[in-house]
Design goal:
Aspartate Aminotransferase, domain 2; four-stranded antiparallel sheet; 2 domains; Aspartate Aminotransferase, domain 1; alpha/beta; seven-stranded mixed sheet; binds ligand TLP
């Protein structure tokens, strides 16, 4: 598709390219064979991740999808059920991997507009031990919540939910692909959030701009099982220090700037809300994601195409509308240009 200028890519915070510091660190990384536990850079990244999450251990995996998959495989045997939200990334965008490879049925629960599960409902759904019932292996939550617009779970809401699972002896896994965005929004360290769950997956390749990689953290036996799962899915690597090095830079240098992305997303959302007929729920704009609906009569594909011809790329979120995500390659000028393009593409038509 031809762009008049360098495109402003708001489709996702996954589109970022590694920073100069990351490229340098990758070139200079000290490496070894990770399957012998001998890659010092991977080892450092795993130790740092465990420390930041306040967990005993962590394992480096290729993607967020792989991280969630190995976590579910570690929590559930074949036929054990995972309770998760009907708007969760694991359900929508991970190719049903846990069911395909682990024989793990999904018990999908309704998700509120703010990305929350109802603790009473989850409590009801946790199975009693009885022949014929599947065992409940895990409850999964997502924070920030992608399809709900990057919403954050307040700590008391999180505690109430994990409380009901813990009372019944069921572990809670957090898809924390963007846990550092949640932490920035709440003004707490990521470990304060992770302390409320048993296991957590987070991504280096979303707002933190690393090219590859996610980490799965939890207690040592869980991480050992996740490591075994990583091997099963073909994800155990060798001199992976070359990519882990970029991850270490991401954790060192890219976390503290996330609130800039949040401020720009807010400005985008407020600007969009001023365009007549555009529907954006400002309450959901809590981090770096903005989901909005175009004015009635204007379909999403037309808006995407109109924006693209002005050099602005955004993504289609189906029934939820359209999505824009801010990240470190989006500056104030990019926000202005995106809003100008949105205003012209979605301008009311005067007879
Ligand atoms: N999300 C991507 C797309 O898959 C939709 C995006 O552009 O936002 N959990 C959450 C909450 C995510 O948002 C994502 C990526 C993942 C897991 C999966 O991570 P990857 O893409 O590394 O497998």
């Amino acid at each position: 598709m031809p762009f008049p200028t360098v495109p402003i890519d708001l489709r996702s915070d996954t589109v970022t390219r590694p920073t100069a510091a990351m490229r340098r660190a990758m070139a200079e990384a000290e490496v070894g064979d990770d399957q012998y536990g001998e890659d010092p850079t991977v080892n450092r990244l795993e130790e740092r991740a465990a420390e930041l999450m306040g967990k005993e251990a962590a394992v480096f995996v290729a993607s967020g999808t792989m991280g969630n998959l190995v976590a579910l495989l570690a929590h559930c045997g074949r036929g054990d059920e995972a309770i998760l939200g009907d708007e969760s990334h694991i359900f929508w965008y991970e190719s049903g991997g846990a069911a395909a490879l682990g024989g793990i049925p999904f018990n999908l629960r309704p998700t509120s507009g703010l990305g929350r599960l109802d603790p009473d409902d989850v409590a009801d759904q946790i199975r009693a031990v009885r022949p014929g019932y599947p065992r409940t292996g895990v409850v999964c939550i997502e924070n920030t919540h992608n399809r709900c617009g990057g919403t954050v779970l307040p700590l008391d809401v999180l505690r109430e939910l994990t409380g009901v699972a813990r009372e019944r002896g069921v572990p809670v896994h957090m898809d924390g692909a963007r846990i550092f965005n949640a932490a920035a929004a709440l003004g707490v360290p990521a470990s304060t959030i992770a302390a409320e769950v048993d296991t957590v997956q987070f991504c280096l390749s979303k707002g933190l701009a690393a090219p590859v990689g996610s980490l799965v953290a939890g207690d040592a036996p869980f991480v050992e099982a996740a490591r075994q799962g990583r091997k099963i899915v073909g994800g155990a690597m060798r001199q992976a220090g070359v990519i882990a090095a970029a991850g270490l830079v991401a954790l060192e240098e890219m976390v503290d700037r996330l609130s800039e992305d949040h401020a720009r997303a807010r400005r985008l959302a407020e600007g969009l809300a001023e365009i007549p007929g555009v529907n954006v729920d400002l309450e959901t704009v809590q981090t770096n994601i903005v989901i909005f609906r175009p004015p009635a009569g204007l379909d999403s594909a037309t808006v995407i195409e109109g924006m693209a011809t002005q050099g602005i790329r955004i993504s289609n979120y189906g029934l939820r509308g359209l999505r824009m995500v801010t990240h470190y390659e989006i500056d104030d000028d990019a926000v202005d240009r995106a809003l100008e393009a949105a205003a012209s593409v979605m301008a009311p038509i005067h007879a």
